[in-house]
Amino acid sequence: MLKKPCRIFHKNLRQNLSEEDIETQSLAIANMALKMNVWNKTYYHIFLSITEQKEVNTEYILQILAGKDKDVILSKSEFETCKMTHFLLTENTKIKKSPYNIPEPIDGIEVPNTKIDVVFVPVLGYDKQGNRVGYGKGFYDKFLSECKPEVIKIGLSFFNPVDCIEDANPCDIKLDYCITPHAIFQF
User: Fold this and answer.
1) Could you give the number of structural domains in the chain?
2) 4 among the known binding-site residues?
3) What sections of 68-185 are H helices per DSSP?
4) Are the CB atoms for 21 and 154 separated by under 8 Å?
5) Is 109 known to sit in a ligand binding site?
6) Which residues contact 75 (CB under 8 A, 6 or more apart)?
């Protein structure tokens, strides 16, 4: 499958999910995440869900991170450069939706990419080799390429992988894992 049809296919699958489906499956994804051996790290980057896009609700994983007293990193997207700036989530962090409905920190304590140990990655579609399809702007590929080589990249998806994303290229950063409500895929 090519990226563009994969993107369209998975957006359509998501649109068929009810709010209850999203909540139930997001909780199942968080419970699956607890089974992983990744909780001994310090800095965890997570995205805040775009509810209008019916993304996995990351609130449950945020609760796990808070319960484990981990440092949580959130990003702010700069659409002119397709880059992200990363901020430490604190009790003083103010979140505002961007013009693209992305919940983002307004400002805060900036954290360099090289500090981040684990990244929870939003996924539209992905394949059995760990290639991922997002919204097509390359924000996460740029960000992940600037992280330390050993950063753990974990996709979150409601759906199983497709066999192959045929037009994946060397600039696309592969996932290490993808968590669904029923399985953890390792690549």
Assistant:
1) 1
2) yes
3) 139-145
4) no
5) no
6) 45, 47, 84, 85, 86, 87, 104, 105, 143
Domain that holds residue 69: 3-186
Known binding residue 14? Answer is: no
108 a known binding residue? no
- Which domain CATH number covers 100? 3.40.50.10420
How far is residue 72's CA from residue 46's CA, in Å, rounded to a whole number?
A: 7
**Residues 173, 123: Cα–Cα separation, whole Å:** 12
Each residue's pLDDT tens digit, 14-65? 999 999 999 999 999 999 999 999 999 999 999 999 999 999 999 999 999 9
**Can you give the pTM of this predicted structure?**
0.94
32 CA to centre of own chain: 15
